[in-house]
Amino acid sequence: MIREEAMKIIQTEDLQNYNWFSDRGIYPDEVGIIMKDNTWIVYSADERASIRNQVEFQNESDALTEFIERLRADKILRSL
Questions:
Q1: 66 with 57: CB under 8 angstroms?
Q2: What percent of the chain has pLDDT over 90?
Q3: How many other β-carbons are positioned within 10 Å of the β-carbon of residue 32?
Q4: CA spacing 20 to 30 A to 72: which of 8, 16, 25, 80?
Q5: Domain of life of the organism in this record (predicted)?
C-alpha cells in the first residue's frame, strides 16, 4: 500500500480519529502512524492519550496496511 491509496481509503470509508505522520502530541483514542529512524510505527492510544500498543515496521507498505486495519476496527467499535 502507498500513502495515496491509504488516504483514499480513509476518505472513502470516512475513517476518523487518527494521527497521520504528525509531530503533534498523542490524542486520546486515536490510531497513529509515524516514522522515526527509518522505522514506521503504528500505535493505538487509550482515553488518557497513552499508547496501548505499538508495532514497528521496516517498510511503509506494511505499516500503512496495519494503520488502515486499526482504523477500520476503531470505526466498528465506535459504532457499537
A1: yes
A2: 94
A3: 22
A4: 25
A5: Bacteria
